[in-house]
Design goal:
It contains 11 helices and 6 strands. A hairpin with a 4-residue loop joins strand 4 and strand 5. By secondary structure, it is of the alpha/beta class. This is Cation transporter. Belongs to the cation diffusion facilitator (CDF) transporter (TC 2.A.4) family. Keywords: Membrane, Transmembrane, Transmembrane helix, Transport. Its main location: membrane.
């Protein structure tokens, strides 16, 4: 809804400055809109004496504090790298999101207590059409705020603003519940205010816990999602000069700070200069196109040696025949004094039930039957991101 306007607002800047400008604007918009909503709901709650409306008002006040933390988070995250923080400060966005979650949970528990007290000691609401109008206005304002946050999050790929957008839409649902409870009590006289407040408080606590989980995942580091992995794999498929790739590692130091390493398999007859040119080209491509600082580790493969190539094909056929969808890499054949030494790594799918020792024993037995006496060294990897 707001994407084109936001793009125009932050045009002609670098990606990091664009992120800072849009993030700061989002924090300011959230700060003032949540303050206005707080006062609207506070007036409605004070006029009606409704604990559920007051709970919703304080929830808007906590959103104001969240906006302050969002502003602070984007300001610190925009600081350049320094001696103590060579990868920059973008992860502070995750910390600010974590602090926002703590505030939300605290507010939720405070009003859970107040709502339970209202259930025990119910009191009649002093409702009026003005109160309902104020609540409807607050619903409309939160819908607009939620779409603004979502557009900003999509523009700069911010998990912090995506959480803020979800929190805004959660507030829409909670205010609708408050409005429904007030209308029900106004027309029927049933004292449901305390129950509505309890329901809202539990919902607020749940939202806070979910946001903490997401912030902790970002801080601890998570596996790239399947879409990101597919995009990385699609780009590697463009390079016909390499024989294969494996052992991808991805480290995120913030939304715009991604570092990765990967092993690329190349012809061992290449000169060091030729291999360096190819790996340098791949690294530059990933930096320019995907914004990933990639480091390539070279794995030479003896494709020109006929005997080694024959053994390679035998091993490939053996792994294919066991129907476990095993992939292998880092293949080496060394000619020792008395026998061959064959070493390689295998990537094992998550659902494979056989133990590492069982896999090694079975594969080793089949290789010796096909190739002859040999020392077989197999490393088992069950956590590979890309398998090729």
């Amino acid at each position: 809804m707001f994407e084109k306007w936001l793009d125009a607002y932050a045009s002609h800047t670098t990606s990091e400055k664009k992120r800072y400008r849009i993030g700061t604007l989002s924090g300011i918009v959230g700060l003032f809109s949540n303050l206005i909503l707080f006062f609207i709901k506070l007036i409605a709650g004070w006029l009606s004496g409704s604990v559920s409306i007051l709970t919703d008002a304080i929830n808007s006040l906590s959103d104001t504090a969240s906006s302050v933390l969002t502003l602070l988070g984007f300001k610190i995250a925009a600081k350049p790298a320094d001696k103590e923080h060579p990868y920059g400060h973008q992860r502070f966005e995750y910390i600010s999101g974590f602090l926002v979650s703590i505030i939300i949970i605290f507010v939720g528990f405070q009003f859970l207590t107040t709502s339970i007290e209202r259930i025990i000691n119910p009191s009649k609401l002093e409702a009026s059409p003005l109160i309902f109008v104020l609540l409807i206005i607050s619903v409309g304002a939160k819908v607009i705020q939620g779409f603004f946050y979502r557009s900003a999050a999509d523009t700069i790929h911010s998990t912090t603003l995506r959480s803020a957008a979800q929190d805004s839409f959660n507030d829409v649902y909670t205010t609708i519940i408050v409005l429904a409870a007030s209308l029900l009590e106004f027309f029927t006289g049933w004292t449901v205010d305390g129950y509505a407040g309890t329901l809202l408080a539990i919902f607020i606590i749940y939202s806070g816990i979910s946001m903490i989980r997401e912030s902790m995942d970002d801080l601890l580091g998570t596996r790239p999602n399947e879409q990101e992995l597919a995009e990385i794999q699609d780009h590697f498929e463009q390079f016909d000069s390499i024989l294969g790739y494996h052992d991808l590692l991805v480290h995120n130091y913030g939304p715009n700070k991604t570092f990765a390493s990967i092993h690329i398999e190349v012809d061992d007859s290449w000169s060091l200069t030729q291999a360096h040119v190819v790996s340098d080209h791949i690294e530059k491509h990933f930096k320019d196109v995907l914004g990933i600082d990639l480091v390539c580790h070279l794995d030479p493969i003896a494709v020109q040696n006929e005997e080694h190539t024959r053994i390679y094909r035998e091993v490939k056929a053996i792994l294919k025949s066991n129907q476990l969808n095993l992939k292998f890499h880092d293949f080496r054949v060394e000619e020792l004094e008395n026998q061959l030494k064959i070493s390689f790594d295998i990537d094992v799918p998550e659902k494979t039930t056989a133990s590492n020792d069982q896999l090694r024993a079975s594969i080793t037995r089949d290789i010796i039957l096909k190739v002859g006496p040999a020392e077989v060294v197999i490393e088992v990897d069950r956590l590979s991101l890309l398998k090729h």
